[in-house]
Design a protein that fits this description.
The protein is mainly beta and 156 residues long. The chain contains two helices and eleven strands. It is elongated.
Length: 156
Amino acid sequence: MRSCNAAVFTMRLSPPPAPLDRTLDLNNFVAGWVDWNICLDEKGGPTWVNNNLDSPIIVNAAADKFYKQPMFYAMGHLSKFIKPDSARISAKVTGKQSVLATAFTCQGRRTLVLLNKHDSSQDLLVTDSTTEHHIRLTVDPRCLVTVLWEKQQSYM
């Protein structure tokens, strides 16, 4: 194995928003994800079925203010790194059930998204199976981490 140069972007989510798990459903033939309500009031409405919920943006109309929730930033993080026309590729995490992973390739660039749902750091070895290049990294507790690297030629 050879080590590779990679850029690592980390976003602390304490706790990770529950819908974030669904964004990693992209491993299961999901083509995208839409948040039903991007803005709701402080009571989680309005809603026609009275199932008040949380949302990425909470609006306090009386004070003419809005509040960006962790899910807002998580959606922005994923949108920044998973580009249109990306193709999902295999991503497998062994021995770390608290770490979720999904990976993409687009124009020769690899994008790996990791979500550590655990309360402790997780040490990982990421290996690109097509080139055997690797990177070691520690994913902090309750963090969303994106790793980017260029697909390099295999020299085997």
